[in-house]
Amino acid sequence: MNKLSIILPIVFVALVTVISSIFVVDEREKALVLQFGQIKAVKESPGLAFKIPFIQEVVKYDDRILSLDTEAIEVTPSDDRRLVVDAFARYRIADVVRFRQAVGAGGIRLAEDRLASILNAQIREVLGADQVTSDTILSEDRRGLMNRIRDQARAAALSLGLDVVDVRLKQTNLPSQNLEATFARMRAEREREAADEIARGNEAAQRVRALADRTVVETLSEAEKEAQIVRGQADAQRNGIFAEAFGADQEFFAFYRSLQAYEQALKGSNSNMVMTPDSEFFDYLKSDRATVRPAP
């Protein structure tokens, strides 16, 4: 019984010692074995590994590609049009030893702060370079600019043990204080285009109206011309008939013309006429002239 009470604590301590000396490295991780803050071993292959219990400790880092979103910053291209730019980067820990030496116990949080500073500096440098305008940033050349930012950020991030895989600009906007002025300029441009279109439309409408008015005048003139010709022909025919009638019976013709004169003179309900009793105007209404002999 005394031997058992001695063996069990020894076995328990041995078991705890063995368990604390074993650690597992996942395939998505890299591990460092530290002894009093100094790197003693690097474990990059997945599987079981060993360390000295109670003296050494294990620090693990993610070996996958990580993402970092930068804060929006203002850049000034060569055309002096300020832009607000934010980006995101894809990176991984390429050299875990250098990474530990660079950031110490700060880990990923400190590394991302430093990487964000590197990215912002490279964004300002590339987008603010000569011959880079706001139109270039917003055009298809944007991809080339992002590749330049990635390459320069990768070179600067090697000191942190990081490999910058990709950099992308998420959005590129004007500062809020410039938006209203830009919108006002856009509205003025659209209003000018609308005024030009209205002016061109009015000009075209005026040409159409002028052409229509000329067509109306020409049509009326042509119709009046034809009407005058028809009237002239009718008057000539009427005069011919009158002349023929006058030649056939002058007395009957004088009688007919007198009746027309009576009709024209006595129009209306209150026509008044003043003349002498012996006037010849009403000769054909007198009893001795009322009988008209028929034409031969």
Polypeptide structure, described:
The protein is an alpha+beta fold. It has 3 domains: about 20-60, no CATH class; about 65-180, 2-Layer Sandwich (Tetrahydropterin Synthase, Chain A); about 245-295, no CATH class. It has 7 helices and 9 strands, in the order αββββββββααααβαα. It has helices spanning about 1-20, 95-105, 105-125, 135, 140-155, 175-250, 250-265; strands at about 20-25, 30-35, 40-45, 45-50, 55-60, 65-70, 75, 85-95, 160-175. Strands 6, 7, 8 and 9 form a 4-stranded antiparallel beta sheet that branches. A 3-stranded antiparallel beta sheet has the order 3-2-5, with no helix packed on it. A two-stranded antiparallel ribbon has the order 1-4. Strand 7 (about 75) and strand 8 (about 85-95) form a beta hairpin.
Kindly report the CATH topology of the largest domain: Tetrahydropterin Synthase, Chain A
The stretches of 5 or more residues where confidence is low (pLDDT under 50) are 289-296
Would you report the number of β strands?
9
The biggest beta sheet reads: 4 strands, antiparallel
Secondary-structure element pattern, one letter each: HEEEEEEEEHHHHEHH
Q: What is the fourth-level CATH superfamily of the largest domain?
A: Band 7 domain
From the coordinates shown, what is the CATH architecture of the largest domain? 2-Layer Sandwich
For the record, give the distance between the C-alpha atoms at the N and C termini, rounded to a whole number: 182 Å
Shape: rod-shaped
Q: What is the helix tally?
A: 7
Radius of gyration: 57 Å
State the secondary-structure class: alpha+beta
Mean pLDDT comes to: 82
Beta percentage is: 15-25%
Proportion in helices: 40-55%
